[in-house]
Design a protein that fits this description.
Aminopeptidase; 26% helix; alpha+beta; binds coenzyme A; globular; single chain; 156 residues
């Protein structure tokens, strides 16, 4: 059976989102607070993949990218990342940051580059993911949308 499309997650999906994140070892503490920034893919009623785009002034934070183990390797994370990066472009964000402990290479393959965490803009540094939830050991990655060769117009 084909999997569902990428949909905006509602409050009633938060429990499934938190369980998915915790099961993958990702922080879930601020999901309820950030409730309206998450998107996901369902297999029938089961949330099997998710990701969020947190706005931070002219930047955005790509976060909580997760796919249930059984569904990995089918391009679901790539679909969600591309969907969220397109949203960031449409919102006029100039760059997207992310933190990861285990998947830096995955995001580099999507076009992100590793940067020093100390150099991130203040609005990104102030996010809970940066300031308290992700450990200092996490890699910091950046995609500069205004220089993204895959877009013809840059930031809109
Ligand atoms: C990382 C993750 C989101 C990838 O999900 P996915 O749907 O399997 O990814 P895709 O199908 O888009 O891509 C699969 C490819 O990425 C590679 N890949 C998967 N995880 C990787 C990782 N941690 N590092 C490097 N490459 C990775 C796979 O080997 C596969 O490569 P191939 O296409 O050459 O066979 C998933 O493994 C996951 O949920 N991990 C735990 C949570 C996490 O670390 N999230 C990222 C931090 S926000």
């Amino acid at each position: 059976m084909p999997l569902g499309p990428i949909v905006w997650l509602q409050t009633e999906h938060l429990d499934q989102l938190e369980a998915l994140l915790i099961g993958a070892g990702l922080p879930a503490e601020d999901c309820a607070l950030q409730g309206d920034i998450f998107y996901g893919i369902f297999d029938r009623d089961e949330l099997i993949a998710a990701g969020g785009l947190e706005a931070a002034a002219e930047y955005a934070l790509l976060r909580s990218i997760v796919v249930k183990s059984h569904y990995r390797g089918r391009g679901l994370a790539r679909s969600i990342c591309e969907f969220l990066l397109e949203r960031a472009r449409l919102q006029g964000r100039v760059a997207v940051y992310l933190l990861t402990e285990t998947a830096a290479e995955y995001f580099q393959n999507l076009g992100f580059e590793q940067v020093a965490r100390a150099g991130v803009p203040a609005s990104i540094a102030a996010s809970q993911q940066f300031s308290s939830l992700c450990p200092d050991s996490a890699s910091c990655l950046l995609m500069n949308l205004s220089c993204d060769p895959t877009t013809s117009n840059g930031a809109q």
